[in-house]
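TICKET: design request
STATUS: open
ATTACHED STRUCTURE:
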């Protein structure tokens, strides 16, 4: 009987540590979630975002998985190459200008912003992303794929380019009927909150 009780207590202790760690992580992520809810979500209904996502969804409706892969490969090649025509086309569109303005207005709290369509392809962005297709990443899968009003706050990490502690928060973007149409990811400078 003593062995059973000891084994049970050991098992309970083993489960308590991860749960405690999770609670600590949740406490660290709460200010990021609060910031996104109070300062980012209010502008997700802006026509600059909604109309751009709708337009790209219509334009990309018939893209196959191979088409998406080809676009992503082209983008990645441009990131490392000298031809930036695809990247420049996105960075200079009206939505990207809108997002760049939101980043600047954040007073350093936002490090990057990018908006994705229903396939996870970039529609607009404040800064160049390393890839064009986000559909295979948690930021898209745990926001857009989770449905209306979904918010996913990723772990806090040190951003090597900015040397700041950052977390990416992703939110589903919905149309005026509440139908998910895309997602947004906002890099939040934890040190600035």
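STATUS: resolved
RESOLUTION: sequence designed for all positions
ATTACHED SEQUENCE:
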């Amino acid at each position: 009987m003593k062995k059973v009780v000891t084994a049970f207590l050991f098992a309970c202790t083993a489960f308590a540590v991860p749960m405690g760690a999770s609670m600590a992580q949740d406490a660290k992520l709460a200010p990021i979630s609060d910031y996104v809810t109070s300062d980012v979500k209010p502008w997700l209904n802006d026509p600059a975002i909604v109309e751009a996502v709708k337009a790209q969804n219509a334009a990309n409706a018939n893209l196959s998985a191979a088409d998406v892969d080809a676009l992503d490969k082209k983008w990645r090649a441009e990131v490392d190459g000298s031809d930036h025509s695809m990247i420049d086309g996105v960075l200079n569109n009206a939505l990207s200008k809108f997002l760049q303005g939101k980043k600047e207005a954040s007073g350093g709290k936002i490090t990057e912003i990018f908006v994705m369509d229903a396939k996870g392809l970039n529609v607009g962005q404040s800064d160049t992303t390393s890839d064009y297709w986000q559909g295979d990443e948690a930021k898209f899968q745990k926001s857009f794929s989770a449905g209306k009003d979904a918010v996913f706050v990723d772990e806090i990490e040190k951003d090597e380019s900015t040397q700041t502690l950052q977390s990416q928060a992703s939110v589903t973007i919905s149309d005026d009927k509440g139908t998910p149409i895309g997602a947004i990811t906002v890099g939040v400078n934890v040190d600035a909150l």
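CLOSING REMARK: The chain is about 50% helix and 20% strand. Confidence is low (pLDDT under 50) at residues 1-21.
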